[in-house]
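Dear support,

I submitted the protein below through the web form. The confirmation email said the job was done, but the results page showed an empty box. After a refresh the structure appeared. I'm attaching both so you can tell me whether what I see now is the final result or a partial one.
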Amino acid sequence: MRATVRQAGRATAHLTVAAAMAFGMYLFITVLLITAIGTVAVIGAWLLPETVLLVRRIAGAKRRLTTAWTGREIPEAYQALDGPLTERLRTAVRDPGTLTDLRWLAAYYVYGALLFLALPLWPVGLVVDGVSCGLLRRRAVVLPWIVRLADLEAGWSTALLRPSPKALLAARVEQLSATRADAIAAHGAELRRIERDLHDGAQARLVALSMRIGLAKRAYDRDPDAARKLLDDAQAQAEEALAELRQVVRGIHPPILTDRGLVGAVRALAAGSGLLVTVDVAGLEDDGPRAPAAVEAAAYFVVAEALTNVAKHSGSPMASVRIARLRRGIRVEVADEGHGGADESAGSGLLGMRRRVAALDGTVRTSSPVGGPTVVAVELPCVW
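What the results page shows now:
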């Protein structure tokens, strides 16, 4: 009986918030009428995009309320309302999400008041279910109907607020366009970095190497000792140029990934990071199937960037890396016990990490409250 009362109480609280929101919707009718009249009169057309934005926020609050009850998230799919007024008006009218929200709004004026069906059930339920459960040792009969009413309200809200396939497709296209633009920007930045490294590093050393060899050839007959010294310097510069070329190649695609796979490469990276790093692996055996090369490279660079951030910014001497194989991808998590407060806009490399992962349709979640800990969790989809 106690569990039944508790669950009915949660359902009543949910219905109470829903009823309060419905009451606010009745007051919101005034705003809708003003917007409609202003739009028809043209002089108030600027109100339409603002009202649509307000309706989106209200629908978003209802989605969150329904998700808290059902545990299932309701996606949002809206087109961005920006640009000049004419473009905003066109988007507000043509966006399928606007019609979805207005349809929910009209229906919510009716079913948002289910609380008034639930309240009379409480005195009846406490008596009937108290006798049924306390004396007869049977199941509750009346109070569970309050939970069913909350489920009904949440079910209707889920069905009405779920975006149409057209809206989901439009949102997906917009998301892919954004990730494609980020991938192109990241690719361009990577090319410029490689060009800069080659120009300022290996190329400069090779030019100096050529000059020293030329000087050694001229001095060979006159001063063999000076020529020998120049050749020794040239050999040292050749070795330095080779080392820089290897570094550039590692920045493009670390050879250790090809040789040892993701797990071996991450273990080597952890061993050379200068930190006390623990590496936990789940589901990725050395002799098992490997993820695609692009996914392995993205996961490797996520770990490399995260460990670099730990060494530079966190103040923690320890970190942990967890790599797990998912049914449809890979999950990588890097955590430390530093002082936290990681900021993407502060040049910590998190933005570049997010762009690299988004290009593969992955997700990045960062938790870094002030005082720590910092956790960077990345999921990369792939087919095994």
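Response: this is the final, complete result; the empty box was a page-load delay. The mean pLDDT is 83.
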